[in-house]
Design brief:
Blueprint: H1 10-20, H2 29-45, H3 53-59, H4 64-77, E1 82-84, H5 85-93, H6 102-112, E2 119-121, H7 122-134, H8 137-148, E3 156-157, H9 158-172, H10 178-182, H11 185-196, E4 203-204, H12 206-215, H13 217-222
Antiparallel strand pairs: 1-2, 3-4
Helix pairs in contact: 5-6, 6-8, 6-9, 8-12, 9-11
Length: 230
């Protein structure tokens, strides 16, 4: 894969996500009401208070109940209401024990940390998750471009793409994925960068990135964004 390679832990990750967004069928109305009240109190009492649920519901593709459940799970993992990079790396490394996920988790953390303040809030988390799970192709490609644009200057250089590819290579583990062992990260980057840098100016713009991804079947096949890692 190019953006997100296949993961041997795909089922486990999807199962964990399903736990965060369960079906609420079967709950009693009174219990549901009590849960809602508790959630509202928690939302107002937590040290880093997320935006109101109504606003998040308008800004994402999650409904109110899903947001409440997501928040409950987020708060269980991160009682302070924010995730720092070390915690993010610890959580992510559990899913890829066969390799070293720390560098890729660093880049992923920076993509979720949209205001670049060194922490991922519930709002940051749920906004990114909404795009990755339910966003349009255009939204997902924009998000992927931001991931690869490490210094956030609006361009992807070959060095940035190589850094991400090496991080993916390390995370997946060479022994677990022989196909990656046969082709080095640099070879992957040379192929994809040549395809994307249409005007040969040494950088990839957002338009070049999106155009190439949408018009290349091989790249689009590997751009099942987060389907392969969640």
């Amino acid at each position: 894969g190019f953006i997100y390679p296949e993961s041997g832990n795909k089922r486990g990750l999807k199962a964990r996500l399903r736990k965060l967004i369960p079906c609420s069928v079967g709950r009693r109305a009174s219990a549901r009401s009590q849960s809602n009240v508790e959630d509202e109190l928690e939302l107002s009492a937590v040290r880093h208070r997320p935006e109101g649920l109504e606003q998040l519901e308008a800004q994402t593709r999650f409904n109110r109940k899903e947001l409440q459940v997501l928040y409950r799970g987020f708060k269980n993992e991160c009682p302070s209401g924010v995730v720092n990079e070390d915690t993010f790396k610890d959580i992510y490394s559990q899913f890829f024990p066969q390799g070293d996920a720390s560098t890729y988790a660093h880049f992923l953390f920076n993509a979720f940390d949209t205001d670049h303040n060194g922490s991922v809030s519930f709002e940051d988390f749920v906004m990114g998750l909404s795009i990755l799970l339910r966003g349009s192709i255009q939204e997902k490609l924009n998000w992927a471009f931001n991931l690869y644009d490490i210094n956030k200057d609006g361009y992807i250089t070959k060095e940035e793409m190589l850094d991400i590819m090496k991080a993916i290579y390390d995370m997946m583990g060479k022994c677990t994925y022989p196909v990656l062992r046969e082709e080095t990260p640099r070879q992957h980057v040379d192929i994809f960068f040549q395809k994307m840098d249409k005007n040969k100016d040494g950088v990839i713009t957002i338009d070049e990135f999106i155009d190439c991804c949408q018009n290349d079947e091989n790249i689009m096949r590997s751009m099942q964004l987060f389907e392969n890692v969640i």
